[in-house]
Design a protein that fits this description.
Blueprint (H helix, E strand, L loop, with lengths): L4 H10 L5 H8 L5 H14 L7 H11 E4 L8 E3 L4 E8 L4 E5 L6 E3 L7 H4 L6 E11 L4 E8 H4 L3 H16 L5 E2 L6 E4 L9 E3 L3 E4 L1 H4 L12 E8 H4 L4 H8 L7 E10 L2 E15 L1
Parallel strand pairs: 3-6, 7-12
Antiparallel strand pairs: 1-2, 2-3, 4-11, 5-6, 6-7, 8-9, 9-10, 12-14, 13-14
Helix pairs in contact: 1-3, 1-10, 2-3
Amino acid sequence: MASNVLTAIKNLIENPVVALTAHYSGRNRVNGVGNALEVYIKDLFANTFMYDDEYLKLNVYNKVFSYTGNQNNPPDIILKNGDAIEVKKVQGNSSALALNSSYPKDKLYADSTMITNECRTCENWSVKDIIYAIGNTTDTHLKELWFVYGDCYAADKGTYERIKNTIVDGLHSIPCIELAETNELGKIKKVDPLGITDLRVRGMWSIFHPRKVFNYLPKQNILSNFKFYCLMKSDKFEQFTDKDKKNLFALKDDKKFFIHDVQIRNPNNPAQLIPVKFMEFYYG
């Protein structure tokens, strides 16, 4: 039972759910709009957001997803033989997303030290495209949702690894300290003469919201209660089946849904422009 981002967009347009807490708190025992957003993203890809029976829903999840992760390690979801998905919630008009100890990703790599072993072994894979699913919410409602592929958004991993490795090498150059094994930037043991103080050195990464990063793209800006945007490279869009693309294009006839061919700045070299598909949907 394969799924992909075009399937999820079709499900969203045909049956948008913006009152997240009202929809999910009763039927799925979900606490908080953040958890409701993650469940909604899963339901969009699995086409299960109208299921009342939790057991039936879990069985569909099992067919669609090879991995559903934890809050401490990316990603949140992996589609079977498909893309990875990282869900982020922001409230208000925040200009940045907190990524904590995980730097921005253009792709998800199986050899990354930041993923769990369960993620690494959930299927036979080495690299996956990653979608950042970013929801702007109130305490109860979803106001705006972005699906942005990492290779449109983040530089290649070497950009971030260079900074990270330089910091780690700097810690190792400090004389007369004891460093412990850690997935963080570093952990220094017994800093003081008594040997009773440890120091954890953690990365706290953040990235600008796509609304700010891609503010130069022309938009319809239709007055609505909910806005959805999706951004992917044109060659990625062409990899989907003709059926999936045809089903999506059919929605342009009677919905406030638009698909544009535009260009964005290359995250690795802003002097270059790369062709992308930019999609918009407005509801309410």
